[in-house]
Amino acid sequence: MVSKPSEMPRGKKSAPKADSYTASDIQVLEGLEAVRRRPGMYIGTTDQRGLHHLVYEIVDNSVDEAMAGFCSRIEITLENDGWVSVRDDGRGIPVDKHKSTGKSALETIMTVLHAGGKFGGGAYKVSGGLHGVGASVVNALSSKMWVEVRREGKVYRQEYEKGQPKGSLKTTPEPKQTQTGTLTSWLPDDSIFDAIDHDYDFLLQRFREMAYLTKGIWIQFSDKREGKEREMNFCFEGGVASFVRHINKGRNTLSPRPIYVEKTVDTTAVECAIQYNDGFSQVEFSFANTINTIDGGAHLTGFRTALTRVLNDYARKNKLLKDDDANLSGDDVREGMVAVISVKLPEPQFEGQTKTRLGNAEVKTHVESAFAEGLMQHLEEHPADGRRIIEKGVLAARAREAARKARDLVVRKGLLDGTMLPGKLADCSERDPAQCELYLVEGNSAGGTAKAGRDRRFQAILPLRGKILNVEKARMEKMLAHEEIRALITAMGTGFGETMDIGKLRYHRIIIMADADVDGSHIRTLLLTFFFRYMRDVIENGHLYIALAPLYRIQLGRQGTWIYSDNERDAFLGKVKEGQKATMQRYKGLGEMNPEQLWETTMDPEQRTMLRVTIDDAMKAEEIFSTLMGDEVAPRKKWIQGHATQVKNLDI
């Protein structure tokens, strides 16, 4: 629920009291108590994302063992009683006494923050978990936990409760025991987390990603919860080349196999794979020590530099570009490209705790030299691949020039710089973007109702006539020629694509409001596709919403109730007492409501319900948009058939 913008209440400042703030007011939190008191500082949130973070921390430790060459299998299990277990066949956590703490290394790792083998001690040359807080934080935020270690012919076990050890380390000699590894099992604390409800499908994407990035590792993910039983196994010998093939699944590719480069430069292991398709969007995923660096960094910069330079050199050398032709730009050579760039290095420098950007300057040179050499060798050995890639780049360059002319034309007319707002935009009087919201409304009829029902102070209305262009199937110049999209870009004020400036956004809540029918669903999907491809910053900064319009109004006597789903309708009718007469009206479109009803149900910040659009998994989002909105019919049909039982309306 989004509340109505209002001025912050101002309170009176009380007179200071003498000696009201002394040393006795300072609280010192011992051990892991700080984690339990402020979990958000360590795992971000206490919702489902934070719950999943616990799983990642433990699995990352096993992946580090795999990257070090000591682990070949990881088993993750969601148990029926809320417990989660992670087992690996690595070396097993050390159990000998630690000099500084006087405790076993196992207990130290599980109960002391910033204790681990990833701070230059020599145990791990490459690691994703560099902050040393993983296992101890999971322990602190679990009501119960136990760890079992197999090494040196013995089985070691220790139990914990809310971060504290319950007894000493127990040892069971097993002379015939030759296996090694660690089994960690924990029960998240329901007094800390909003709900103990792991999302199997969401976690599955992360583990598939890990398997692609760690060649040869076997990952088994099982769900043993009642009614949800299933299991998936991953093992990819092709590494990131298999990853690229997976992303390109269902698309028309220019070559049957990805271009794959693997090389170690100094201490940096570089692994890159690219494959082109006949689409217009570019897809790049970059990783450092298996961590998804969504904001790129030195490795992505080095890759892009090498790609542009090598393709232009190859095109000149083989007369695929005329002497008077300009060089292909980075955008030209990346159109229709799917690329995965993975580096593994001893001391990665991530920008911030979120690790979204790699900062090591030397990695740019390492990736650039490794990929340039590998790409040029492939092109020399496969000239047909080179010719098709250059031809696609040349077409992209021509389209880019056409798009530039189209952009210049609309800029000259003031249509993209906010100086000439679209005539059909009913703007609001408020000028603080943080207080303003823009409704994108399906059709002129509903747009008129929304204009009449809105609060003019902070709510702007932009009616969109019909279904906008599917930008997944169109180049930029065609998109800029589409009147409805131009109106949308102009109203936003940010520009679009790589030149987009989110700081110029005129409304901090962009709300898609469409009918609750098949056509409305299609319009929402087309708008989401546009934002995902050309204004992703709007989504990633939390500015995009979907308004939930009611489906029914049920009248019981003089009292009317708005109903937003079929399930809610059935539940409501099930509570109607015998003898009561209920009349029900179904609302197919927003235009069927009068302004007062639309305000009451969908636009009043005190009563409305809205869904914020997020991108939790960029790879999954990329796959779905390409499948549902692309040219290929067969993958779309297969996807719809596989998900038919999960939806009410299908627009095939």
Outline type: flat
Radius of gyration: 28 Å
| Total discrete domains | 4
Tell me the number of strands.
22
What does the main sheet amount to?
A: 9 strands, mixed
Q: Helix segment count?
A: 20
State the name of the first-level CATH class of the largest domain: Alpha Beta
Q: Which range best describes the helical content: under 10%, 10-25%, 25-40%, 40-55%, 55-70% or over 70%?
A: 25-40%
CA distance, first residue to last residue: 32 Å
What kind of oligomer do you see?
single chain
Mean pLDDT: 84
Strand content: 15-25%
Write a structural description.
This protein has 652 residues and is α+β, with helices and mostly antiparallel strands. It folds into 4 domains: 33-234, 2-Layer Sandwich (Heat Shock Protein 90), CATH 3.30.565.10; 240-406, Ribosomal Protein S5, domain 2; 414-549 and 611-618, Rossmann fold; 552-586. It is built from 20 helices and 22 strands. The strands form 4 sheets. Strands 1, 2, 3, 4, 5, 6, 7, 8 and 9 form a 9-stranded mixed β-sheet that branches. It has a 5-stranded mixed β-sheet with strand order 10-11-14-12-13, sandwiched between helices. It has a 5-stranded mixed β-sheet with strand order 16-15-17-18-22, sandwiched between helices. Helix 10 packs across helix 11.
